[in-house]
């Protein structure tokens, strides 16, 4: 029994049953916050200055964020209509799910993956179909293709997979997409694309370049590699008519002028920002290797995070990190995701992880 107070108005049953969104813990002054896959670097002064120069706060922003669209269109070699900007890539994902999948429809994704997927499917009124990851924490694309039915309207694939880390290879994705009916949306969620170093990883830009799969939409974000999580700006590349449908479900004017300007400034400063991404990726590789050395079965880590498969001991292990001032993201009964943060946090993570691994069964 819960003692939550009754909702005073009639709410859709599936929404009333949803647990409230739980954000990763905020860190105190002494702690490292490694729970939300954020970028540990402060924003570049030039990006901050450009953000502050954005249009006056008493004016609405450009609803379509056209300057940023044009810039990204040029960069990806697509038409402006093939780019859509959102207040974070998660808001675009919500639009795509709303546009394609209502009551009686199915949305397929791997599990465990990004926690928003089941939530977005349920809020749209559709049925979430979860396909278990393989034992090495990768997408099981054969099983995902086999799960497609006449009711399937969308399939979401996440590469690198949050929270476990492995990528889907180009060959795996190419074979998979051939098995998806051409009127079923495939979302390639590449929130962590810039951190990928595996040479055989799928690249959404390359998938779209051929033009052979108008049902594929690629999602990317300025939250991770570009360090703008607090400003909320992400984008989709795909077929203009598919993006139009997403746009029809969007809350108008949710991308601020400040977010658009900071994203443009970040693209101008890309070389410097990608240098930081390289630093984080190197730190990640060092951390994953040392954790494996210590006895953890860390799967391939291609995002800005590593996965500790702590199973039934997850809450105890997370408590040990917490006590040491390391805020991590535990998934009870399954594992712990640790973001690659400040250099000084790496030694600390290793020390705690090595000390608790000995107690695991
Ligand atoms: N996709 C994945 C896989 C993510 O992990 C996240 C953020 N945690 C997002 C999308 C959303 O990112 P944002 O809305 O900040 O662009």
Automatic annotation (TrEMBL):
PROSITE patterns: AA_TRANSFER_CLASS_2. Homodimer. CDD domains: AAT_like (cd00609). Residues 32-350 form the Aminotransferase class I/classII large domain. It is an enzyme of class 2 (transferase). Its EC number is 2.6.1.57. Its cofactor is pyridoxal 5'-phosphate. It comes from the Bacteria. InterPro entries: Aminotrans_II_pyridoxalP_BS, Aminotransferase_I/II_large, ArAT, HisP_aminotrans, HistidinolP_aminotransfase, PyrdxlP-dep_Trfase, PyrdxlP-dep_Trfase_major, PyrdxlP-dep_Trfase_small. It comes from Microbacterium salsuginis. HAMAP family: HisC_aminotrans_2 (MF_01023), Phe_aminotrans_2 (MF_01513). NCBIfam families: PRK03321.1. This is Aromatic amino acid aminotransferase.
């Amino acid at each position: 029994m819960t003692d939550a107070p009754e909702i005073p108005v009639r709410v859709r049953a599936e929404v009333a049953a949803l647990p409230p969104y739980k954000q990763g813990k905020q860190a105190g002054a002494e702690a490292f916050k490694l729970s939300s896959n954020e970028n540990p670097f402060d924003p570049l002064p030039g990006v901050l200055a450009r953000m502050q120069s954005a249009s006056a706060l008493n004016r609405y922003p450009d609803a379509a964020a056209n300057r940023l669209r044009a810039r990204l269109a040029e960069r990806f070699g697509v038409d402006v209509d093939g780019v859509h900007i959102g207040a974070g890539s998660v808001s675009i994902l919500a639009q795509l799910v709303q546009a394609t999948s209502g009551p009686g429809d199915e949305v397929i994704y791997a599990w465990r993956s990004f926690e928003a997927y089941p939530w977005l499917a349920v809020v749209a009124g559709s049925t979430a179909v979860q396909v278990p990851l393989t034992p090495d924490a990768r997408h099981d694309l054969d099983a995902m293709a086999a799960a497609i039915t006449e009711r399937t309207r969308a399939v979401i694939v996440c590469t690198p997979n949050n929270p476990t880390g492995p990528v889907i290879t180009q060959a795996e994705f190419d074979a998979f997409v051939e098995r998806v009916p051409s009127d079923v949306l495939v979302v390639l969620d590449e929130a962590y694309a810039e951190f990928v170093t595996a040479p055989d990883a799928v690249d959404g830009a390359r998938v779209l370049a051929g033009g052979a799969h108008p049902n594929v939409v690629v999602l990317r974000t300025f939250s991770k590699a570009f360090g703008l999580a607090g400003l909320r700006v992400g984008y989709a590349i795909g077929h203009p008519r598919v993006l139009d449908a997403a746009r029809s479900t969007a809350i108008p004017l949710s991308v601020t002028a400040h977010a658009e300007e900071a994203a443009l400034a970040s693209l101008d400063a890309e070389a410097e920002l990608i240098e930081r991404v390289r630093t984080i990726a190197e730190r990640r590789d060092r951390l994953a290797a040392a954790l494996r050395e210590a006895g953890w079965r860390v799967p391939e880590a291609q995002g800005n995070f590593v996965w500790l498969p702590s199973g039934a001991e997850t809450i105890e292990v997370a408590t040990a990190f917490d006590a040491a001032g390391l805020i991590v993201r535990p998934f009870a009964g399954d594992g712990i995701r640790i973001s690659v943060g400040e250099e000084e946090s790496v030694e600390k993570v290793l020390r705690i992880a090595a000390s608790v691994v000995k107690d695991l069964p």
